[in-house]
Specification:
Mean pLDDT: 83
Strand content: over 45%
Low-confidence stretches: 1-17, 19-113, 671-679
Shape: globular
Largest sheet: 20 strands, antiparallel
Length: about 675
């Protein structure tokens, strides 16, 4: 896209002006985008600015060159002379202005916008696209990284900007999904933006194409967040008390590495946790994670190294991981322990995957690997009970029994079908932070053959399958659903079979007004969930209560092999980025659900409970990932087995949403070692 004013220069002079700009490290049209944003509805003002700059640049070509301009209000690094006179320049600018206004219409000027506004779509979630053609190729990439506070409001914010090491430019360039000279693709442009939005230490990501005819330069604009987070947290109100102290750095020295150290206490049992997560290990394209947890409840050590799928455009991936643990585990009834036991875990495996198909439409991924898994169980000792602060005499009478030791060794294979249909939304799980949701069809299946020949418990086939889809509805609303099933097949039949069905509905209503007064930005959220298990392993159970499904009752109040949930929230975002530090919101909610080992009929009648309530939401937009603190006031509508009376007020302090926008397979694939930072 050639700028209006510049298009009137003779080609030799235009080329010379471009050369001077390149010598100063600038792109020809990056500034044009900025002015278009300043004057989106006033194309004539855009013409004025463009004509003035073009005319001044024309005369400046014949003057001595200085690196710094005495005109700081003009963004382009104009080539200026201290001896230059203003009068001939202003006269020439006026002539150029009249010529431009007489020969250009507003409609023709709007056509030069890199990404035309999408009607009815908020600017924050619009995508920047330009018309594709076989002749267009990607050009140079320019990265602009804004500081945390831009501009800083006071001395404290200026100090914060100085203390925080900015993200290194190469960390942004490593996520770019195209190469200079490669045919231009709007998909690769959008995919680059989507990958960058997965980086929690960045916010306000914009990937802007600058059309220069056959070459499309790209400007990437991002803003840093505050990632050094001293940790002092307290969570309570769901029948247990959790405290922690530690520190987290989500962008160590601007390299994107995550390092966390945390000491936490949960019901009197203390644990030390540490993790180091490198998205680009030692500057390579590989990712590495190392973590440990050691405390009263046992110890776990793990590592994971590989090149995982970060983008739909990625053709291959591989991974190698291992986990070793010896932990004290608990089973519950009515929010109290009913059985305590020891579990020892050894898991080592690796896999390689490759992709077929077009990532712009639908692709197929195939995976091959090998895994070793050994899980053994033994009774808890007297010292184990003492370590976790549980008196054996207080265990619930329901009791429990040790699960059978399990060992599965053998090759694995997997298949994924992914239809690409991403949308962008904010005001979903967080406030203004933009999140991506795939509404395309998704199917995955994985199997492992574990023969007794390889010392498996017996000849066993382990398998899992999932299918999901999504729908864009009226306005900005959308719905997604997913079904999942996993099981093991042995000589005696199927065991540990778990079927799950989950659906979600989100409707960002936007600003709601009554009588001319704003009631904030509202988002209606609904989630339905059903889990059904058959012949479940003795060490597994489905829990409900507190921080899971029903917030009006103690955590782990309801247990069984069947459970369901109906959750509704009206998430209201009242104030954004107050003092550049905090956003304030609230929510009205209603939860219905339960769990049982009886029939499904009894689950929906005798074992159904509900609560209603209101909550406060505090978000920190400048922090790593825009953390959200949740304070809920919940009223149970029915007395529960945990001793809760109907309409007995419960106050819950916690972090994040009770139920987020990720579906089950997405939650599983995104799980990485980490510490539970935040309230």
């Amino acid at each position: 896209m050639t700028a209006v004013g510049l298009s009137r220069l003779p080609r030799p002079l235009l080329r010379r002006w471009q050369q001077y700009l390149r010598c100063n490290g600038k792109k020809l049209d990056a500034k044009n985008y900025d002015k278009l944003q300043l004057f989106p509805d006033s194309p004539h003002l855009y013409c004025i600015v463009e004509s003035l700059e073009a005319t001044i640049c024309f005369f400046a070509l014949f003057l001595p060159v200085r690196k710094r301009s005495p005109l700081p209000h003009i963004r382009t690094p104009l080539l200026w002379s201290e001896r230059a006179k203003f009068s001939p320049l202003l006269a020439a600018s006026a002539f150029s202005l009249i010529l431009t206004l007489c020969t250009h219409s507003p409609s023709s000027l709007h056509a030069q916008t890199p990404s035309p506004p999408q009607e009815g779509v908020p600017q924050a979630i619009q995508q920047y696209h330009i018309e594709e053609s076989p002749e267009k190729v990607f050009g140079a990439v320019e990265v602009k990284i804004r500081r945390i506070f831009d501009p800083p409001r006071n001395a404290i914010y200026r100090m914060a900007n100085r203390l925080k090491i900015s993200t290194r430019e190469k960390m942004i360039l490593q996520e770019v999904q195209f190469q200079e000279g490669e045919p231009y693709s709007n998909f690769l442009l959008s995919e680059t933006a989507r990958v960058l939005r997965t980086l929690r230490y960045l916010r306000d990501i914009r990937v802007i194409p600058i059309d220069r005819g056959d070459v499309v330069d790209v400007v990437i604009e991002v803003q840093d967040t505050w990632t050094i987070i001293p940790q002092m947290s307290f969570a309570s109100g769901d029948g247990r008390t959790r405290k922690s102290v530690g520190i987290s750095e989500g962008n160590f020295l601007g390299t994107g590495n995550r390092a966390e150290l945390l000491y936490r206490e949960d019901e009197g049992a203390d644990t030390l946790q540490a993790v180091f997560d490198s998205r680009r290990l030692l500057g390579t394209k590989y990712q590495g994670v190392v973590g440990l947890a050691n405390g009263a409840e046992g110890e776990e050590y793990l590592y994971d190294i590989g090149d995982p799928f970060r983008s739909l455009a990625q053709k291959t991936a591989w991974s190698h991981s291992a986990l070793f643990g010896d932990t004290i585990e608990r089973l519950f009834a009515a929010a109290e322990e009913r059985f305590i036991y020891r579990k020892q875990t050894e898991r080592v495996g690796g896999s390689y995957a490759f992709t077929l198909g077009s990532p712009e439409d639908a692709l197929k991924r195939f995976q091959l690997g090998f895994q070793y898994l050994s899980e053994s169980f033994r009774e808890a000792s007297a010292s184990d009970f003492e370590d976790i602060g549980v008196d054996p005499e207080t265990l619930r009478p329901e009791g429990g029994e040790l699960a059978e030791n399990r060992k599965f060794v053998g090759p694995t294979a997997g298949y994924q079908f992914i239809e690409q249909d991403f949308i962008r939304r904010n005001y979903i799980d967080r406030f203004v932070r933009v999140e991506d949701f795939n509404l395309g069809e998704r199917f995955s299946s994985a199997v492992q053959w574990a023969p007794s020949l390889l010392e498996s418990r017996e000849d066993t086939l382990l398998w899992s399958t999932s299918y999901g889809d999504g729908y864009e509805l009226e306005g900005l609303s959308f719905a997604r659903w997913e079904s999942r099933i996993e099981s093991r097949l042995i000589s005696e039949g199927f065991e540990n079979t778990i079927f799950s069905l989950e659906g979600q509905y989100f409707n960002p209503l936007g600003e709601v007004e009554i009588g001319g007064r704003s009631l904030g930005y509202h988002t209606l959220v609904f989630r339905a969930l059903l889990d059904y298990a058959d012949n479940l392993d003795f060490d597994k159970e489905l829990l409900v209560g507190g921080d899971n499904i029903l917030r009006g009752y103690d955590a782990r109040t309801f247990t069984g092999d069947k459970r369901y949930a109906l959750n509704f929230e009206d998430r209201i975002h009242l104030a954004e980025n107050v003092y550049d530090l905090i956003s304030v919101g609230m929510a009205f909610f209603a939860d219905v659900g339960g769990a049982t080992r009886e029939s499904l009929g009894e689950l929906y009648t005798d074992n159904t409970f509900a609560n209603v309530g209101v909550g406060l939401r505090l978000a920190f937009p400048k922090s790593n990932g825009e953390r959200v603190v949740r304070i809920d006031l919940a009223l149970p509508l029915r007395a529960g087995p945990d001793g809760s009376d109907s309409f007995e007020l419960r106050v819950i302090f916690s972090g994040g949403q009770l139920f987020g926008s990720r579906l089950g397979t997405e939650r599983a694939s995104s799980q990485q070692v980490g510490v539970d930072l935040g309230f």
